[in-house]
User: Fold this.
Amino acid sequence: LEWRIHTQIHRDRPDAMCVCHLHAPAARALEIAGKPLKPVFIHGAFLCTGVPTWDNPRLVVADDQAADLSRALGHHCAAQMRGHGSVVVGASAEEAFFACTFLEENAQIQLQADIHGGAIPLSDAEASDCRTGTFNPRLFGLLWDFYDRKAALP
Assistant:
């Protein structure tokens, strides 16, 4: 039903060779609670440029909805969809998979920390430094290969 998400973002973002739409539970819970997704651990540092929220909980079944979601995503690698899920983009399938995986893990950690009084997000400088060390193609490939081998196990 929501193929327009992918076609519109590919149209608007030539750098986004892979577009993912997901319903990851922890990220969705934060967004439903109105809490911004902030980088709170080293592999979530790539979120340092922000994760905007598209303020529309509906299915994306019309061109104008897809265009509006793409505008909300802008230059970011991820956007939350209020009451719905997330959109994540990457220059490769491996990069997008890395971002999907650690967007959800970051959200899980953030939710767990909220139970204990709140997550302490990485500072801009910390997130920038951590992003440089962790958001790179070598690690994209390692994570991809790990899950590829895991999926192949009997």
